Amino acid sequence: MTRDLPPALIDRLSEILGPDALFTDPGERVAYGYDNSNHRSMPGAVALPVEAAQVRDIVLACRAHDCPIVARGRGTNTTGASVPSSGGLVIGFERMNRLLELNQADRLAVVQPGLLNGDLQRAAGTKGLFWPPDPTSSAYSSIGGNLGCNSGGPRAVKYGACRDNVLGLLAVTGAGQLIRCGGPTTKASAGYDFTRFIIGSEGTLALIVEATLLLRPLPPARQTLRALYSDVAAAASAVARLMAQPHTPSMLEFMDGDCVRLAREVGGAEIPEAGALLMIEADGDQSTLDAAMAALEKAASGPGLIALERARDADQREVLFAARKALSPALRTLAPGKINEDVVVPVSRIPDLVSGVQALAREFALTIVNFGHAGNGNLHVNILYRTDDAAEVARAESVLPRLFELTLSLGGTLSGEHGIGIDKRDYMARAHGAESLALMRAVKAQFDPDGILNPGKLLPASDAGE
Does residue 13 form part of some domain? Predict the structure, then answer.
């Protein structure tokens, strides 16, 4: 839906932003009307601020004109969360991309939201530090986008997702208030924790304009195991054993048989045929790493294990993980259509989730490929289909409610790191009771009294409308 902005608002935005920072031409706006989902919608205009005060003034101006606002990083979201489905104004944060502070003594970084995850990692690495959230899109996704969806990635199994690695935020609410949450300390108990509240809210509560991030020391050593299994059930059972022993792996990635083949044929990894694979990594001091690896090898062993070996060197380890990161685009070689869900269940229920997904694949006569961050119980369930076959498209869409019902029945949740956006908002009522949803709407109204921040996302429509 395209909604033209009133001339008075355009004039005010031009005053705030100055020259060359407000796009109104359709040719310039079109690139901000989609993300990595199947959704498209043209914004009425695009604003490219460079400082927090501009963002505050933009929100105040839009509030005065009842104009929707959608925050956008680099558009890697897969659920439509950054698509301007109600028209209005897109605020693109790519020009707010500065690393404001890198403090080695306090192990923190202060960044603007448009800074790329990969650029932060390179800068932190020069000081012997890293920021744990490491999504597949880290080379080209922004910190603001990572925070909006509470991204995690492979390292989350040991170090946590964004919520566990952010100390404080500077943000603009939907009322135009510039608020500071948290601060530069790693411990605090002084009131409500709005930092963790805003992270994962997909731009529906406030627009993050600055973040203070907790950095960790780079581990001096890493070792990687590759475990091959006869089938996915055996691998899933091994995940439960691995997470039940005291040596927490720094990564624990799962791939089913189709993914193993793709990693070999498309990603270039030297992997024999197998029904499933686990990539298990431990990091730390070399003096303790051998004991950790021995414990992980013992836990990985069990029924269905075909082969278990350590990576020979860093080069072999990097090839293996590069193949894992290439899996999502490689799935296009199996079918042109893909629905990628990132459901989460308790680790002990992973075998039930995998077997349930296999049953759905048989029932709906579809290829469903599974991989993901198994140590957190977070699997990417990829439903593949031919886009030129209407019946197959319909079957693929029909799998979703069954997948979510299965996940919730196992004590799981709808998303681990992709968020809810447009795609899953209608399923939120299944995941949360009416009382919880009412509280969420009340919080939304407090932060965003006129409902201008990312309308139509995350929360399902109420009986009274949005």
Answer: yes
Supply the pTM of this predicted model. Answer: 0.92
Beta strands at 89-92 and 45-47: parallel, antiparallel or unpaired: parallel
Among 209, 121, 224, smallest CA distance to 165 is for 121
DSSP assigned state of 32: G
Instruction: Give the gyration radius of the chain's Cα atoms.
Output: 22
314 plus 238 within the same structural domain = yes
- DSSP reduced 3-state for 308: strand
Domain assignment present for residue 87? The answer is yes
Average pLDDT over residues 107-117: 98
Pair 270, 411 in one domain: yes
CA distances from 376 to 132, 151, 266 (A): 14, 13, 26
Distance CA 151, CA 136 (A): 10
CA 120 to chain centre: 17
What's the N-to-C CA distance of the chain in angstroms?
16
- Angle ∠(155,255,75) on CA atoms, nearest 5: 60
Measured at the alpha carbon of residue 246, what is the angle toward residues 242 and 249, in degrees to the nearest 5? 55
Q: Is 304 helix (H, G, I), strand (E, B) or coil?
A: coil
Enumerate helices (H) and strands (E) in the chain, giving the number of each. 16, 18
Whether 253 and 206 share a structural domain: no
Q: Which domain holds residue 304?
A: 220-419
What is the helix (H) or strand (E) element at residue 244, kind and residue range? helix 232-244
Q: Which is more confident, 23 or 350?
A: 23
Give per-residue pLDDT as tens, 334-369. Answer: 888 888 899 999 988 888 998 899 999 999 999 998
Residues with Cβ within 8 Å of 436's Cβ and at least 6 positions away in sequence, in order, are none
User: Please, are residues 454 and 203 in contact by the beta-carbon 8 Å criterion?
Assistant: yes
Taking every pair of Cα atoms in the chain, the longest distance, rounded to a whole number of angstroms, is 69
